[in-house]
Amino acid sequence: MTKNKIFYLGLIFIIGICSLIFRVNLSQALSNEGAQLKSIEQCANINDFDKKLNCLKKIITSKKENKKEKESALSLIMSYWQSKDGESGYLISDLFLDILTTDYKFFFLQMKKYPKEYDNWIKELNELSFVWFKEPPSPLEKKREKLIAFLKSISDLQDDTDSLRLKLLDALIKIKPRQVD
Fold it and tell me: Of 42, 84, 154, 181, which sits most exposed with the smallest number of CB within 10 A?
């Protein structure tokens, strides 16, 4: 065999091995990506409440999930809100704000289905999402200002959901974040 043939055979062998490795890594990456998004049932079975909410948030904010899946995830969160106690109220309130800023149309359409819970959340918003228990300085005033600016920038909602936006905007304007020592 000539040196050229040996060289080309070696090159073909290396390309084949690299291609095989690439395919294995690609299939693992794709299966891991799918595994990262859990089902609602898997989220509901997580013991740590903060992790459970984060799991549901991933479903709601995922571009891959369908509308029914997102609605079911929010419905489960609303059931947690209805039976909240202690720290869970803080976590859920902050999650509502995250969902709002991620997909405001979805957020307001869903909140329209839960008027009592939405009103209760707005009444408790100051105490749940705008009290700082850590060392100063508190980032909550900046958070409040960003939310107000965000809500003011929204102009494409229908009247029935825009009224929910305006109610939240009014509450945020009146809120005075506070530091607890």
Answer: 181
